[in-house]
Amino acid sequence: MSQTGFPVLAAKRVLIVYAHQSSGSFNAAAKNAAVEVLTAQGCTVDVSDLYAMGFKATATAEDIKGEVKNAENFCYLEESKLAWEQGKLSDDIMKEQSKLTEADLIIFQFPMYWFSVPAILKGWIDRVLTNGFAFSQEKRYSQGIFKNKKAMLSFTTGSLESMFSPTGINGDMNVTLWPLQNGILHYCGFQVLAPQIFWAPSSAVAEDRKSMLESWRTRLQGLLEEKPLSFISLDCFDEKAFQLKPEVHEKHASKEFGLTVGIHLNKPLPPHSQMKAGV
Predict the structure, then answer these.
(1) How far apart are CA 44 and CA 52, in angstroms?
(2) Rounded CA gap, 224 and 139, in Å?
(3) CA dist 140 → 127, 210, 276 (Å)
(4) What's the CA gap between 228 and 192, in Å, rounded?
(5) What is the DSSP letter of 188?
(6) Which of 82, 38, 91 is nearest to 62 (CA)?
(7) 226-258 pLDDT per residue, tens
(8) Are 233 and 142 in contact (CB under 8 A)?
(9) Coil, strand, or helix at residue 48?
């Protein structure tokens, strides 16, 4: 046990990618709680405070040092891969990639904007998770480059939890999370931990906001030991059209629910599959 009373884990490195403008925000409090609890457990915690860093959100040719291969028909996907291979990416990108390479766990802390992440965080994703470094045609999803790392979303909403339900006006939160957790994190191979969702803290009373943070602090004590969400293995798809193999499709033909939110086989969506592990 550490002097703070938290169990000490084997040395781990954590990267928190933090996207909020205000140090007095609930997101800042959630980020600070993660730094405190994880540090007390013996983790080394790095924080990329994107607004404080003035992190550039746009993916442009300026991200590449020297001449690009094809200035007339610039393709960021191809040019950034080549620049990564040649060590010619801009210093801010290379610094973030270095942090990510060293990390065992990445926590994205942000307020949900328009059912997604703030532009500055989307820019971090676009610019840091470059072709070759974070994924390739051969290394993605369950066979992805970061398959030995864990990642998770921790975010605040402006809407109440009931509004993000299957009968709520915003729709099922599991559907909202699918592009972020499957299309970005799982695509790069990360083991995706269940998200930490702080429902509408701006409209909650002080006591409820305090309770939200205490629940987060409690979860953080065992976070590194949590099992990830379930996704379909790349082995379940053919190598030509990337369709489910017939035997996999047949195996689940009689099941009540689809496989995942996105790969639902025209069946009801599996409940809570993007919010709880083991479902």
Answers:
(1) 20
(2) 24
(3) 17, 39, 23
(4) 5
(5) T
(6) 91
(7) 999 999 999 999 999 999 999 999 999 899 999
(8) yes
(9) strand
Contact 187, 135 (CB under 8 A): yes
Residue type, 146: F
Token couple for 45: 């915690």
Q: At which residue do the structure tokens 């990390």 appear?
A: 103
3-class DSSP state of 16: strand
| Amino acid of residue 197 | I
Query: Residue 170 corresponds to which tokens in the numbers above?
Result: 């915003």
Q: In the numeric block, which tokens belong to residue 279?
A: 């479902």
Beta strand segments in the chain, E: 13-18, 44-49, 105-111, 150-156, 191-192, 196-198
- pTM here? 0.93
Q: pLDDT tens digits, residue range 146-195?
A: 999 999 999 999 999 999 999 999 999 999 999 999 999 999 999 999 99
pLDDT of the residue at 7: 52
Helix (H) or strand (E) holding 17: strand 13-18
| pLDDT above 90 for 6 | no
Quote the CA–CA distance of 272 and 39 in Å, as a whole number: 30
